[in-house]
Amino acid sequence: EVQLVESGGGLVQPGGSLRLSCAASGFSFSNYEMNWVRQAPGKGLEWVSYLSSGSTIYYADSVKGRFTISRDNAKNSLYLQMNSLRAEDTAVYYCARGGGYGGNSRFDYWGQGTLVTVSS
Amino acid sequence: QSVLTQPPSVSGAPGQRVTISCTGSSSNIGAGYDVHWYQQLPGAAPKLLIYGNSNRPSGVPDRFSGSKSGTSASLAITGLQAEDEADYYCQSYDSSLSGWVFGGGTKLTVL
Predict the structure, then answer these.
(1) How far apart are CA A103 and CA B100, in angstroms?
(2) Which of A1, A6, A44, B38 is packed most tightly, with the most Cβ within 10 A?
(3) B106 touches chain A (CB under 8 A)
(4) pLDDT, tens only, B39-54
């Protein structure tokens, strides 16, 4: 059974940093594209970042230059380093596995999410 | 606003059929990129409902179907059930933004 478990969320002040983790199990992690998707309170879904099974990385314009995605295949884990956090980054952050290929990729499995709150 | 446009809400009585539209542009749906649909039950994470425009993952009832034409896509739900009450999102890829995009979401109410 595919499982994705996020951790690392919490309350942080504007300008602060946070590192999210996603522990994967039930599939061959190193072979899959992985993503972070977020959802602000009461709002819709927003794709944040993509990391291929190789080293191709993409970011949404809203987080480019502030967030860094990475993975450790030996630990079956995905990470999101978030710096210079702003109030508008407040959201539930989901780890999602990529299914398919490239632009036609979908998010076929999701974690339960971890809440990040940016506030003073 | 979202790159993909969905109606904010739709409703229907049990047993009825409803459709949810998803309108894009020439840089996403119209460029030939697949459309995928997700169901988000209250308080839960999203779940993949339809992938590759019209394919159902294992375990998704055949009451759910998807289609795509030109710059738009649609999700149809037949034989509405109370458990279908949820938020539904379409998703595709946008070549102008070089990233994946979602619709704003549609809240389905079963009357």
Answers:
(1) 8
(2) B38
(3) no
(4) 999 999 999 999 999 9
